[in-house]
């Protein structure tokens, strides 16, 4: 699994960071950064939930 973020689409809601803080972080500019592009197996469910919860669809998963 690979986590991908589209910083041009991100509006900085921070939902992803609250769900998967080991993988996503919203920076001072209000845009998401991916901390672990290939998250460990223990984070897979959280990453999927974060992607599904993004209100502007700024996150993707590539298998």
From TrEMBL:
<comment type="function">
    <text>Ferredoxins are iron-sulfur proteins that transfer electrons in a wide variety of metabolic reactions.</text>
</comment>
<keyword id="KW-0249">Electron transport</keyword>
<keyword id="KW-0003">3Fe-4S</keyword>
<keyword id="KW-0411">Iron-sulfur</keyword>
<dbReference type="GO" id="GO:0005506">
    <property type="term" value="F:iron ion binding"/>
</dbReference>
<protein>
    <recommendedName>
        <fullName>Ferredoxin</fullName>
    </recommendedName>
</protein>
<keyword id="KW-0479">Metal-binding</keyword>
<dbReference type="GO" id="GO:0051538">
    <property type="term" value="F:3 iron, 4 sulfur cluster binding"/>
</dbReference>
<dbReference type="Pfam" id="PF13370">
    <property type="entry name" value="Fer4_13"/>
</dbReference>
<dbReference type="InterPro" id="IPR051269">
    <property type="entry name" value="Fe-S_cluster_ET"/>
</dbReference>
<dbReference type="GO" id="GO:0009055">
    <property type="term" value="F:electron transfer activity"/>
</dbReference>
<keyword id="KW-0813">Transport</keyword>
<keyword id="KW-0408">Iron</keyword>
<dbReference type="InterPro" id="IPR001080">
    <property type="entry name" value="3Fe4S_ferredoxin"/>
</dbReference>
